[in-house]
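To illustrate the input format used throughout this study, we show a single complete record. The first block contains the structure-token representation of the backbone; no residue identities are included at this stage. The design step must infer an amino acid for every position from geometry alone.
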């Protein structure tokens, strides 16, 4: 039987997911995972979260919040292998093996590392830079190669990491013999980038996000805070410049979007536009919130789901790590 195409993506478990993530990543990935011609791997990149954060409570809570979020949004774990990176120790083992044939020069060129060095300006260029940050692309390569993924869909910001993964896989195969699939890169367009409540790109680092799982009142309050210009009711308003409109468009049907565009031309009051946005989001998110609240209160249930995912993932990673050990010469003396 021909093996199905393996599609793999990781989610770094830091911070609370927001509606920009929902429109741009979560819903499209769940949709894509329904494609019957592919086998989907989706994992919580919890060891990646240590690169950015040293708070054990945050690391732990982000991990189950994000797990609950994906499940609440409709991820079907019968169809997708959904697991936690830390449940697959083979990934860590592979990280070491790959690190031993990755040239330091390649890692020196990584954007995330270079940006951290640049921030140090004239001071010590190594200030505050950990080996975790430096090795981040190797860990990511191990995430991907551990499962011989064929395709890795990522945002533009991750493209370089994928190129490095390909480089590392080719180098390994060249030196030790063919073990790894060299993955294709699939760059997702930025259609999902939403403005935040201050009009800049919605991003944790700008503190301008609308979290997905606020309660009804909290959601309403956040939406009422969205920045607008000072146009009065009755004055025609620009749709492209309006955060309210752009968020609305990401969740509404074409017809509803057009109706709102017409109301902008007719000079809808900002308060009313916000109310329409709230109603739309509440309609979309309300049912997900109910799922989320049930899941978040049932940690044992979440744990069981992840353990089942880990078993499936280990079935795939075990033969591959065995091949890797054989290839590099780490094996029992009787073999
Ligand atoms: N680093 C990725 C991000 O920040 C998340 C990630 C970790 C990932 N490992 C991966 C994505 C492997 C794809 C494949 O978005």
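Output of the design step:
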């Amino acid at each position: 039987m021909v093996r199905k195409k393996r599609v793999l993506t990781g989610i770094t478990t830091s911070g609370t997911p927001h509606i920009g993530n929902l429109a741009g990543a979560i819903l499209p990935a769940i949709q894509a995972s329904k494609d019957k011609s592919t086998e989907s791997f989706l994992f919580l990149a919890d060891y990646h979260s240590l690169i950015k954060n040293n708070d054990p409570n945050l690391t732990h809570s982000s991990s189950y919040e994000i797990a609950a979020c994906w499940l609440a949004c409709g991820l079907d774990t019968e169809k997708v292998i959904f697991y936690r990176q830390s449940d697959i120790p083979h990934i860590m083992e592979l990280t070491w093996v790959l690190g031993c044939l990755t040239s330091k020069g390649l890692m020196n060129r990584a954007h995330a590392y270079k940006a951290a060095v640049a921030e140090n300006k004239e001071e010590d260029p190594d200030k505050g830079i950990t080996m975790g940050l430096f090795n981040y692309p190797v860990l990511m390569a191990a995430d991907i190669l551990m499962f011989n993924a064929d395709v890795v869909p990522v945002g533009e910001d991750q493209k370089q990491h994928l190129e490095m993964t390909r480089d590392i896989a080719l180098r390994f195969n060249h030196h030790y013999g063919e073990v790894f699939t060299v993955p294709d890169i699939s760059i997702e367009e930025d259609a999902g980038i939403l403005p935040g409540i201050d009009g800049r790109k919605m991003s944790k680092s700008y503190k301008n996000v609308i979290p997905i799982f606020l309660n009804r009142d909290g959601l309403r309050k956040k939406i009422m805070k969205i920045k607008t210009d000072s146009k009065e009711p009755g004055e025609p308003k620009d749709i492209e410049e309006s955060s309210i409109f752009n968020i609305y468009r990401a969740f509404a049907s074409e017809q509803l979007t057009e109706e709102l565009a017409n109301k902008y031309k007719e000079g809808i009051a900002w308060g009313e536009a916000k109310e329409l946005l709230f109603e739309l989001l509440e309609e979309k998110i309300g049912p997900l919130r109910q799922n989320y609240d049930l899941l978040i209160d049932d940690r044992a249930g979440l744990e069981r789901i992840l353990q089942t995912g880990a078993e499936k993932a280990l079935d795939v990673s075990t033969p591959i790590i065995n091949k890797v050990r054989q290839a590099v010469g780490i094996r029992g003396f009787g073999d």
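Structural context for interpreting the output: The longest strand covers residues 5-12. The pocket of tryptophan is lined by residues 8-10, 12, 45, 48, 140, 143-144, 152, 154, 158 (CB under 6 Å).
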